[in-house]
Amino acid sequence: MCQHQPQCPSADSADREAAHPVAHHPEQGWSLLCNGVLLFEDTGELLPDGQIIAPHRPLDAGNIATAA
Question: Positions of the region Disordered (predicted)?
Answer without folding.
Answer: 1-25
